[in-house]
Amino acid sequence: MSDDVFPERPTDLTAEHLDHYLRKAGLLPQGRVAAVDWQIIGTGKMGDNARFTPRYEGAPASAPATLVGKFPAEDEQARSMAGAQGAYYNEVMFYRDLAAGTRMRTPKIYASELSEDRASFLLLMEDMAPAEPGNQLEGASRSETELALVQAARLAAAYYGNDSIGARDYVMSTARDDGGAFGEALMQQYWPGFVDRFGHGLSAECIAFGEQYVQRHAHFVTRLSGPKTLAHGDFRSENILFTESEATTVDWQTTSESSVMTDAAYFLGGSVSIENRRGWERDLVEAYRARLAEAGVELDASTCWEQYREYAMHGLMITVLGASFSAPGERSDRMFLAMARGHLQQCVDLGSVEFL
Asked: Label partner for 184 (CA 20 to 30 A): which of 21, 38, 62, 236?
């Protein structure tokens, strides 16, 4: 088979394709893939995930019993938008270049493909079952939150102060790009429609904070003058696969150069219930700071807390634009409303307006 053409949908991935990729990865030194079954898993908006079950002939016992393939979204609007925004390119390049540089748990990648125009891709990866994604409508448990923040600290510490991160074209960087002006224009354009759609579930003080934020988005994303790091960018429970003892992070389409507190603040605001976040955040932020220190990143308690308060605002753009660019749906609308409530109330509770 030609390396220039690759399967772009689960239906396109044949036994011959899978045999080729597993052999190339050194996972099928003998035998062959005689047939393959698959089923769609997950509820992704920007990409489709499928679990593949190969049926082997003469293969060693070590050959993977199942694996997961990630493909461009079936929905043409989402597919076109993701390609234009570089989401597929970002994810492929993270796994190729950056995943190995951190102790964070990510799936092993067996194959990665990217079209020349970056509008299509394929990732074949380790199946993390029986691990399952979190549920933002239910809210993360204390145990899930602690597991997630361990992983966030590993990523943040690995690339803290690494100036090469912002120079990579698959990592969002306001220093390299337009200083947040385009993002601010989008927020101002889509915020009124977002309020029309979700305002019934938001308090007046949350809406008022949002009104202030959309006018100052560019100021927020360019304020940080100290060391930065690599952030996942959309570090929420439904992008994390949990077991009782470990969390594995997936969906690397929104990597950015940002604060060491970005992913931690985003998870606590958008994946934990407001009541639990209020009760847990002081202890969890301090535990997160201790994890950073263990990895060699020393922040005093005041600096850590202040950056946490400030980067509570990271969730606003992702939530507003994510909802605005997605077709309405019963579950997705409930999720976006839960995220909006969580992130906005977090900002109000923490007095994040001080940083605008």
From this structure: 236
DSSP per-residue string spanning 49-73: EEEEEEEEES--TTS-S-EEEEEE-
324 touches 333 (CB < 8 A): no
Spatial contact of 238 and 247, defined as CB atoms under 8 Å apart: no
**Calpha distance 260→151 (Å, rounded):** 12
Residue 105's pLDDT band (boundaries 50, 70, 90)? very high
d(CA 94, CA 115): 16
- Collapsing DSSP to helix, strand or coil, 29 comes out as coil
With H, G, I as helix, E, B as strand and everything else as coil, classify residue 127. Answer: coil
Q: How many Cα atoms are found within 13 Å in the side-chain-facing hemisphere of 27?
A: 22
Where do we find the tokens 């088979």? 1
**Given CA atoms 101, 85, 238, 18 in this order, what sign does their dihedral have?**
negative
Three-state secondary-structure class, residue 259: coil
Q: Is the pTM of this model over 0.90?
A: yes
Indicate the burial class of 71 (C-beta count within 10 angstroms; 0-12, 13-18, 19 or more): buried
CA distance 55 to 66: 10
